[in-house]
Specification:
The protein has a two-stranded antiparallel ribbon. The protein contains two helices and two strands.
Length: 67
C-alpha cells in the first residue's frame, strides 16, 4: 500500500480519533485482512515443498498438452 499523506480526525484538544483513507487504500486494507483471515484458517493444514508442487503441476500440464 502506498504511504501517502496521512489525514487524521482530531478532537478540539488535538487527540487523534480517526483517520481518512482513500477508497483505494481502504480496499487494499480489506484485501490484506481477507488474505490474513485465509492464512489463519489454513494454518493447521499440511504443506508441501514448492518444488514438489511445481513438479506435479508440470506433469499435469504435460498430460493435458499431449491430448
Amino acid at each position: 500500500m502506498e504511504q501517502g499523506k496521512k489525514r487524521f480526525i482530531v478532537t478540539e484538544r488535538g487527540h487523534k480519533t480517526g483517520v481518512l483513507l482513500s477508497l483505494r487504500e481502504y480496499g487494499e486494507l480489506l484485501e490484506d485482512l481477507q488474505d490474513l483471515a485465509i492464512i489463519a484458517e489454513r494454518k493447521g493444514e499440511p504443506s508441501q515443498p514448492f518444488e514438489m508442487v511445481k513438479e506435479k503441476l508440470q506433469r499435469k500440464w504435460r498430460r493435458t498438452d499431449s491430448k
